Each structure stands twice: as C-alpha cells, then as structure tokens.
Amino acid sequence: MAFGVLGSIIPQVSLQGPPQKEILFVGIQSSLTVGKVSICNHSNDPARVQLGYYFEGDTTPNYFEFNRTIRYGETYETKDLHVAEGQKLFVLSDQNKTSFIFNGKSTIDVANNVRSGILTGLISSDKFSKLLYQSPVDAKSEVTLSIVNLGTLASKAKIGISSDNAVSGFTTSCYLEYDIDLTVDDTYVRPNIQLGRGESIVCSSDFGSTLSFTIHGSLDQTIETDDVDIAGNVRINNSLGIGTTANTSYKVDVLGNSLFTGDVNISNNLIVGGFNAINETGGFNIGITSNTTDVTPGNVKAINFIGVGNTFFYDAEEQRLDIKISGDGSITDDDALKNVAFLHYGGFGEDDSIRFPQKFHEIFSHEDAAVDIEDGINVDIDEDCLLVITDKNTFDTFSTEIEKTNFLSATGFRDNIRCVFDFDAVLNAEKKVGYVMIPDAYANEIDCDIEPGNTVSIGDMCVLIIGSKSLSKIPEEINNDLLNPYFLSGATY
C-alpha cells in the first residue's frame, strides 16, 4: 500500500512553443488511490495551470482544473481525487516555477467487478438532461462531481439524482444543484454524493456551452442482508474477509472468534502466531530441552517416558502439566547452575514438614556450610520422623561415572560438565553447596574461569568447591578471573 507523497513535479516551460502536459501520477495496479493535489506558484508572475486526467489506454485529455490562475506565493489544493489502476493525472503550467504534489494513499481494489476511481466524464453543450453516471445495481457509490467550463462563454449547470430509470425517471424534485454559475475557466466541485444501488446522476448546461462533467469516487459492493443461505457450492476466486477487509495474501481473513463444529482437515502447515506448530508430516513442533540441549530437532508425534516412578500433575488454575521424572535418579537442570556448579540444597525459604508417609528426609550439606531456616519460616518434624543432615565432600548424585566427563558420542561431544562462569551465579540461603566437577587428574591443567562482566556471589555459610577437596586450598591472593581449586565461602568474585 502506497502512502504519503505519491507524485511531485515542476513542469518545464519551453520558450520554443506552448506548455506541454506532463504526467504527475499513474494509478497503481489493482489499487484505488485517493489523495489531494497541492499547487504552489514560486514565480513572480501569475501562473495559469491545468490539472486533468487520461482514462487507461486513452489520450483524450479531461480536466479537473482548466487555466486556473495562481498568483505568486499562493497555494491551491484540490478536494480528494480518486484514481484507479492505469488512470493518469497530468499537469500543465505556463510558468517554470509552479510545483504540483499529489499526497494520499492507495488501497487494494480487486474484489469488485466495477473498479473505483475516475468513473465517467462527458461534455455538455445544451439544456437536455443527460445521464452522467449510474451506480451499479450491486453497489452503492460515494462520488465527487467536478464541473469545468472549457468554453468561451459563461454557463449554468444543473445536477440531479434519478432513483429510477436514469434520465426518464428524473423528476424536478430531485435537483442537487440548479443553475450553478460558471464563468470562463471556472470550476465547481461537490464531494460526498451518496448513490444507492442503481441510482443515477443527470446533468445539463446552457445551449452553446462547453462544460466538462466528471464523476470519481469509490464503490461499496457489500451485500446488505442479515442472513445468507447458500444451498449449493460457493466458489470465491479472490480473498474472503469475515469481519474485516480481506488481506489479499490469504484466501480467508477472519477477525473475531471462530466456531467449528466437526472435523477441521489441515493438509499443510498450522501456523500459530507466526510459529509453525504442525506441518504436513503430522506431529507438533514442541520445544523440549534437557540440560540446555535441544532434544526435538523435528516434529513430535508422541512423548514416551522411559523408567519407573514418573509422576504427572495437572494444575487446573495455571493450566499446566507438571512432569516429575524420578525413575533412574538422574540429575536435572535444578541440580546445577548451567552444568558449571552442581548443587546441594540446604535451606528452607518456605514452610515445610517431615511427616508420614516418607517419615525421614535428608539434606546433603558440607562441614563448612549451614542449613538455614529463614525468619518467619516453620519446619515441622512430626513424631517418629527424622530430618538427617549429611556432610558431603563431592557431588555424587550422578547416575553413572560417564556423566562426569564430556565424552565423544554418536551425536558429538556431550555437554555434561562446564568449567566457565559466563553468567552471573549465586549461592544463597537455599543453594548452599556447589561443586565445579573438574576431575583430579586435570586439576593442574584446567582452571575454573569467570568471564569478564560476570560475577559469582557466594553467601554466608555457603561453599563453592572447585575440583576435589583433597586438592583444595585457600590461596594467598584471589584472582577474580580464575578460580583455582579451593573452597570459597562468603564472598563475591
């Protein structure tokens, strides 16, 4: 859709002959363009200007303005002009410094059998009523009438609306204008004439006159009915808009809620909010990650949970399905800070209890860490129940030893263990103990890095262990970029 300045020109006046008509704008394909022409005189002398049009494929000039005089510094602006595909606006001036600018917008116009735009024109030279324009029987019209006196004598014009049988059905009670006075080169414009389906505009002038009548505007072929019952098949070649003007990129454009009773058969893709949810092969495009790795490179037709002890809970309020996987004791994303620090939790941030049927719970902690209960939080231990706090020196929750290294598999190197904090990390009242799992064999070769701009904050009575405890020691000076194997407690790096 074109919008804004659609055409501009300063016609050149030759000293070798009369001024020539120059094209200001050509109607855009499959579109109706509506805009105003502004004419400014920059020269010191009065300018006589013309503004007119050619129908598509025709070279006969027709006029909106004829020999209008515009003095130095003056600006004249037309009413809205309606231009269809292929129709041309031309301009002419007898002064070199006269500018013409066409400002407006275009809209798609392909749905109607009769296009909007410049609809018709004729020359009247007598008093007999003439059919100027008749709205199609399947459309309403909102049009502008333009009259220009091209003759050498002043003349009067009459305009009326016939609601039946064109000229023969016109009655004197339906005059819009009666005896409009137009001097030589004068122009009369009447916008916003509303015509019902099949209604007509008739016109006439004085004997010996040369008055140019033009009708331009837009058509509305919307069906006016509360109900449409279709007993047979319907074929729509272009686009159908329901509750809106159709986007011609689609066959059906619906604004508002839709109700389908019965099956909906989708042969190709289902796109939701720009996201390809279902493609023609079937299945859903669901993003599922495991330890930051995308495990769904293609569409998913079924989800199979392998192992025992998987539990499912549907939260009706949040409309969310929670899936707890506990079959083989494998670690989850909650057990690590992006596979760099593997965590033991040791704090209570909300009320909790140790009770039937488990009867005992265990917290993995560390001899230099503490188990915190936040202010105002209650932890109830029922009778004959037990809360066990066990000090650990390593993270031993891996289901297999091979998960402690980044081994080469059929899909490439596994991303099990990382040694770089390229994000801000925090150990706090709940995440009490973290282990960066650098194997002892590589401790002298590999450091744990903190990327520039990132911080690692370790709260009071929290511990971050780099590598094995047997190799850990507190250095004389802390390097904020490299964390060599030692215990870190209660500081920010």
Report on the architecture of this protein.
This protein has 493 residues and is mainly β. 0% of the residues lie in helices and 43% in strands. Strands 1, 3, 6, 7 and 9 form a five-stranded antiparallel beta sheet that branches. It has a five-stranded mixed beta sheet with strand order 26-27-38-41-43, with no helix packed on it. Strands 2-8-4-5 form a four-stranded antiparallel beta sheet, with no helix packed on it. 25% of the residues are buried.
Q: By helix and strand content, what is the structural category?
A: mainly beta
Q: Biggest sheet, open or closed, and with what strands and sense?
A: 5 strands, antiparallel
Q: How many individual domains?
A: 3
Number of helices: 0
> Based on CA inertia axes, which overall geometry fits?
elongated
Could you estimate the helical fraction of the residues in percent?
under 10%
Q: How many strands appear in the DSSP assignment?
A: 44
First-residue to last-residue Cα separation: 56 Å
Describe the oligomeric state of these chains in a short phrase.
Answer: single chain
Mean pLDDT: 85
In the predicted model, the low-confidence regions spanning at least 5 consecutive residues are 470-478
